[in-house]
Amino acid sequence: MKNFLTTKNIIAGLEASLDDDEILFGDKEAEEADRIDFVFSHNWRRKIRFEYHGEAKNLSSKTWKKADGPKVDASKYRGRYITTGIEHLIFGKYAELDGFLIGYVVNGSAKENVTALNKLIKSRALPPKVGLIENKHTIKNHTECYISNNIKEKENILLQHIFLEFDK
Fold this sequence. Notes:
A hairpin with a 2-residue loop joins strand 8 and strand 9. By secondary structure, the chain is α+β, with helices and mostly antiparallel strands. The chain has one domain. It is about 25% helix and about 45% strand. It is globular. The strands form two sheets. It has a seven-stranded mixed beta sheet. A two-stranded antiparallel ribbon has the order 4-5. The mean pLDDT is about 85.
């Protein structure tokens, strides 16, 4: 991946601050700015040609306990993926950005987590506004990539979902 980024002159940055008019005009403090987990940009002669943003969320297929004791509720992870991931990128504070979701699969498989996410999306009666995560495809030899087709004001918004499996 590093070689790909270097050859394409792509800069990857962590947790980018999203300044808005309230911050720019002094009505809100800079530390109150929304933040997104990753920003990818192409810098060519000091002019930014594109910016693409990634929002990352932890996922697990079953509830588990951290080494230091606290319990991690898998259903809450799924709920956050939908409300602070999908919905923020399509309808909320990240809606004006070109972006995608990264799912850190801390237990179970991407397939198990996608199935559980779709079940929750259906149980919340979100389709067609929030689409099911489907259309599995490969990006640069990474097979756990999906697309959801979401509806915002009668417009189809395709959202990429890339799942990184850490429970192997």
